[in-house]
Amino acid sequence: MTKESLVKTDIAQVEDKKAVSGFFKIFGGVADAVRSWIGNIGPDLSNSRDIDSLVLKMNECLNPKGGEVSARKNTVSLGNLYLSLSEKGKIKFLQTLAEKFSLNKAEIDEKIKEYRENQNPELNYKFEQDLVKVLESPRSKILKQFISLPEGLKFIVDMRSDVLKLKNQYKELNRLESELKSILLSWVDVDLLDLRQITWDSPASLLEKLIKYEAVHKISSWGDLKNRLDSDRLCFAFFHYKIPNEPLIFVEVALMDGIADSIQHLLDESVPSSDPSSASTAIFYSISNTQAGLSGISLGNFLIKRVVEKLSQEFKSIKTYVTLSPIPGFTKWLKESLSQDITLLSKLNIKQSSAEILESIEQLKTNTECEKQCLLKLCAHYLLKVKNSSGGAYDPVAHFHFSNGASIKQLNWMADVSEKGISQSAGMMVNYLYELSKIDNNHESYMVNKVVSHSKQVSSMLKGK
């Protein structure tokens, strides 16, 4: 049986098991106890009786009757209750948790008063501890109980993913989201993560996750995946010991002799693999976060640094570390700017009209050299000069790499001719250079003074030379 067949069979078996067992099995095989504890709460939490029952169950988690086993079953049951709810029910669950289990202001005021009125220095510690306890909301105490469960961390990650989708519409969920993020920050610390290489010999279910989560350059087939895991193509991921079978973030690397300037060529399955031991350049061409619930928790910068460290130890011939990165906001920014800023082209000493620029975007493959240089100049301006509200780079990928201490090495014309590449960045891509001796200085210059390090080649594009 081929690897592809084994993969498909393994995945089908995993999905069948998930469908049969559900979360009850994962959380310790206590389905009967869960159903008994949940009672008749409906999936939509559609009436006040359901909400009252939910509040009662949440209070049982907060103040369990019995010992640790009872408390654990309560938490398991509350988790399964949440997962069994409809989308409407989950919204009401989250609103109830946010609104009914917030901080008690009167209790905080009382503890502050006791602390201020205390005249005995030896009792300061007791009053401080009492104050710390009341400053943690009841909902945070409930949420932290999930962490001790086998799948509890993943449950919290997925719950935050739900809240992130809803918080703009339901403002009362903002504090809940903040507390979920705080819990995750303490648990998804880089020192708790394992760096592992994913190869073609990795478990089939893990390979399937690479296909599912690849966010930059879609994996089109098992042949495409196998090519990305060839001897001169590497993939590394961070794993957490409490989510052992789920990569949190992964990066794909190509080992080559020289800097790649086309993603289609880099991923071409017909190109023979090269000898990785003689490679001079490591190219980071895709980095994908797999967990929406970890949004805003920086892992990518640590992943790149750990991989660079690992590669520098294993491949002594590699002297250059660069990316081949998309420029996802360029085309959108350009179209908006041409319609709103009538002086943009004149400020850049570009003689073409807005209409001509827009036409050249639509006809990239037939552009003249003049039109090509014009778009490259506009893209260089976008990366170097266009800022977000905090003064950093407007382009999110650029901001990520500048924050990590990278510089702009070169812009590449028609580097991504896929539909996505054409629509997002007029087919252009950029190489960000990680010079080990300059990373710290570049990072500090960007973070403190918003200075973007870049090559003379990019400066020349901006000047039109």
> What ranges have pLDDT less than 50 throughout 5 or more consecutive residues?
6-28
Please summarize the sheet with the most strands.
5 strands, mixed
Approximate shape:
globular
Oligomer: single chain
Helix % is 40-55%
The H/E string reads HHHHHHHHHHEHHEEHEHEHHHHHEHEHH
Describe what this molecule looks like in 3D:
By secondary structure, the chain is α+β, with helices and mostly antiparallel strands. 54% of the residues lie in helices and 10% in strands. The protein has 22 helices and seven strands. It has helices spanning 3-26, 31-38, 48-62, 68-84, 87-100, 105-117, 124-134, 138-145, 152-166, 174-187, 204-213, 222-228, 263-266, 300-314, 330-340, 344-347, 354-362, 369-385, 396-403, 419-425, 439-449, 456-463, and strands at residues 193-197, 233-240, 249-256, 281-289, 320-323, 407-412, 429-433. Helix 14 (300-314) links the parallel strand 4 (281-289) and strand 5 (320-323). Helix 1 (3-26) crosses helix 11. The N and C termini lie far apart (58 Å). The model is unreliable at 6-28 (pLDDT under 50).
